[in-house]
Known about the structure:
The chain is an alpha/beta fold. The protein has two domains: 201 residues, Spore Coat Polysaccharide Biosynthesis Protein SpsA, Chain A; 91 residues, no CATH class. The protein is built from 13 helices and eight strands. Strands 3-2-1-4-7-6-8-5 form an eight-stranded mixed beta sheet, with helices on both faces. It is globular. The model has no long low-confidence stretch (mean pLDDT 95).
Amino acid sequence: MSAPLVSAIVPTYRRPQLLERSLGSVLRQTYRPLELVVIDDGSGDDTPDVLESFSERARQAGVEYTWFSKQNGGPAQARNAGMERAKGELLAFLDDDDRWYPQKLETQLALMRTHPQAGVSFTRYVHEGKENQPKPKPEQMRDGWVFETLCSGQTRAHMQTLVVSREVQRRVGGFIDARNWEDSDWQLRLALETEFLAVREPLTVICTVESSISREAGLEGDLQRDRDKLRLLDALVARHGDHPRFKREAAKLLRARIYDEHIKHFIWLGRVDDARAAWQQALEECGEQPLLAQLKGKLKRARVAGWFGRKLKKP
């Protein structure tokens, strides 16, 4: 049987100087046959010229290469457009500021061949400059049906490490049209449809830059992202709550985890009254979750610190 075509899908927006890092790591993959699909999300700069410059390099590397531009709409829309253009039986995802180790796809595909029941595989990763500190913890790398453990955080699958079968992707559909938490929503929907396969090697390097969406507007931006996550989780429950593998208690725990971060963001901003109000709301919506109970002491310490004009520091 011939090896399946893998399509690497890379959205990019106004980062032409970083494309050597990400696209170069795709061209250096040891796995073939390989397709590279790059989506210029309406950058409006010299990104098209940079993308065109990779055409000859891709040909020499034996990689089928296509790139195209579209109106700016965010990473979810860009990935969906890339999936529509991609021809591969398997889909892999990489952001324009990250990179893969050369053996990433080959390692994942070799393991997936021996576990055909798994339509998704994921790997460990490292942050640039901390290559000796792979994430997630070994105990968070779980195989099988992982919807509940994705909700609890006991399984952690980073978007840039995923390889997804086209068959499963068709059943699940594309990413929701959101600029935040769209990857988590997609993973949860994938976990309702197929088993996951954990590759214990760190094979992806995450290179966070200041223009990352996750860093926009600091803690105030975090508060809005928290609200977005809660809203999107509501929508997920409404759409998929009747799925036979959907567990509402697991979704409640995920909701509590989002509230846990939301409350801490208020605390670190010194907005203790808002933090307490959010905590009360979380208790009403999620019940007596242990991680919410643990916040009671932190709220008290934040109140006392506020009396002296201080704020608790973000760890």
